[in-house]
Automatic annotation (TrEMBL):
The gene is argE. Keywords: Amino-acid biosynthesis, Arginine biosynthesis, Cobalt, Cytoplasm, Hydrolase, Metal-binding, Zinc. InterPro entries: AcOrn-deacetyl (IPR010169), ArgE/DapE_CS (IPR001261), Bact_exopeptidase_dim_dom (IPR036264), Peptidase_M20 (IPR002933), Peptidase_M20_dimer (IPR011650), Peptidase_M20A (IPR050072). Its cofactor is Zn(2+). It is an enzyme of class 3 (hydrolase). One of its GO terms (molecular function) is acetylornithine deacetylase activity. This is Acetylornithine deacetylase. Belongs to the peptidase M20A family. ArgE subfamily. Transmembrane segments: none annotated.
């Protein structure tokens, strides 16, 4: 199948984050089996979602991982001109949810499978397709836990997030948390008889603001924009009516950390402020929604040199958004980002990718296959 037709099939599966991905996993599995490639379907603990891992070549020798996620963000935004889950072609532009982020990469890899299987590989190429990346990289840790049973330690992993086919060496880490503060309801005329959860949450919110201000003062890493770690309160919800003492308030926050800093550590001041509310009679729930580490690959790494040769472009030092690459690195696998499309088009109505970008990515994968035959 041509890469555009494969992309059309993949876009047609509404594999929205947090939902079952049985259909898209089944189609990819069947596509691989048509070329004699056996895939391992690795169910996650959720029960209705799975990762997929396949090896082309000898699994007992070090090789390279081509990694991407099968899930997409929802497509409820106003502005879609046609069904977001039906690929629409206009000249070189191919529109649809997930075209850039990141079913375009999956399509290019799957289109290269005939070239990958045409002749024996001396080193393997592994396909690692994950679920629920858009929920904070929740699926890939389960795949990485199985990696020692599936293959020899890889030489490196290419994470195909949209990068304009230019390799990226580093990205920030992220941690997101939800804080629930529960007080006691009552009539607003008797605040002495209630516990106002919204007022109490102000202590946590002030801790978030103070942390954000402190982070802007450093430490710094000039590879990133902004060159420091950051924290923000993203949502806050509480109360029922102006004359009812609010008994519940929920705050969601996220932190993004430069390399060498654990993103969860940036939330410590907020957690301390939340836990202190217990002494005043409030119940507090603290939940980490997602967390993944930063990526930092040295420009002298062999994987960086390989991608420079495969793409003909010098790697970019860093981006501020996050990917699964940091989790691969933490698992002991060198990782780099390189894929078709543009992150600026992602998570927007009329998301698109260029046919030329798909062709460039397929060519890169086929060039990698040629290297693995040497």
């Amino acid at each position: 199948m041509h890469v555009v037709e494969i992309l059309r099939k993949l876009v047609g599966f509404p594999s929205v984050v947090g939902t079952s991905n049985d259909a898209i996993v089944g189609w990819i599995d069947a596509h691989l089996r048509a070329f004699g490639v056996e895939a391992h379907i690795l169910p996650g603990p959720e029960g209705d979602r799975a990762n997929l891992f396949a090896t082309i070549g000898p699994s007992d020798r070090p090789g390279y991982v081509l990694s991407g996620h099968m899930d997409v963000v929802p497509a409820h935004e106003a502005g879609w001109r046609t069904d977001p889950f039906e690929l629409r072609a206009e000249d070189e532009r191919l529109y649809g949810r997930g075209t850039s982020d990141m079913k375009g990469f999956l399509a290019a890899v799957l289109a290269a499978v005939p070239a990958l299987t045409a002749r024996p590989l001396a080193r393997p190429v592994h396909l690692a397709f994950s679920y629920d990346e858009e929920a904070g990289c929740r699926g890939v840790p389960h795949l990485l836990a199985r990696l020692p049973d599936l293959c020899a330690p890889p030489l490196g992993a290419v994470i195909g997030e949209p990068s304009g086919m230019r390799a990226i060496l580093a990205h920030k880490g992220k941690a997101a948390a939800r804080i629930n503060v529960k007080g006691r309801s009552g009539h607003s005329s008797r605040p002495d008889l209630g516990l106002n959860a919204v007022h109490a949450m102000a202590d946590v919110l002030n801790a978030a603001i103070a942390t954000a201000e402190n982070l802007a003062e450093g430490p710094f890493d000039d590879a990133f924009e902004p060159p420091y770690s950051s924290l923000q309160a993203g949502t806050i919800v509480g109360g029922q009516a102006v004359n009812i003492i609010p008994d519940l308030c929920t705050l969601e926050v996220e932190a993004r950390a430069i390399s060498s800093i654990d993103p969860i550590s940036l939330l410590a001041r907020l957690r301390e402020a939340a836990e202190a509310l217990r002494a005043r009679g409030f119940a507090v729930e603290w939940e980490i929604l997602s967390a993944y580490p930063a990526l930092s690959l040295p420009p002298t790494a062999a994987l960086a040199g390989l991608l420079r040769e495969l793409t003909g472009k010098a790697p970019l030092a860093a981006v501020s958004y996050g990917t699964e690459a940091g989790l691969y690195q933490r698992a002991g696998v060198d990782a780099i980002i390189c894929g078709p499309g543009d992150i600026a088009r992602a998570h927007k109505p009329d998301e698109f990718i260029l046919a030329s970008e798909l062709a460039a990515c397929q060519a890169m994968v086929e060039a990698l296959a040629a290297r693995c035959r040497a």
